[in-house]
Amino acid sequence: MGSPQEAIFGKLSHTVAVTTLCSTRIFPGFVDFNVRLPAVSYVMTYDPREHSMGRDPNIGSPHFQVDIYSTSYAQTLTLSNAVMNALRDYSGSTWGNIQRIFFEGKSEMVEQDPETRLITHRAIHDYIVWWNT
Hints:
6 strands; 38% strand; alpha+beta; STM4215-like; 3 helices; elongated; 24% helix; six-stranded mixed sheet
């Protein structure tokens, strides 16, 4: 059986609108400093469990943060929209029994490396994945 992590990676890596922009640069955890941008990373931030009187309903709802990085603000927005369109409301059993992926919201940041002066634009998405564990 798959996992929410596999579902996120699988859905993103099989969505042409995403891979056209970032190719195979989709990483669990973080994007290494020497990776060419644009790139995407994802990490589970919280893993609460559903409870029921008398039995375990076998349902998880982990929260994920998906980060989109680019050196261009316009490209960050384009990739951000592609990622959101790929994940939002996804359900299926290709990469685990995913009941639904909910888009919770996003924020944006701009970071500058103090040594190289390289500017990186970043979109930060939050998702909740309902799945059968």
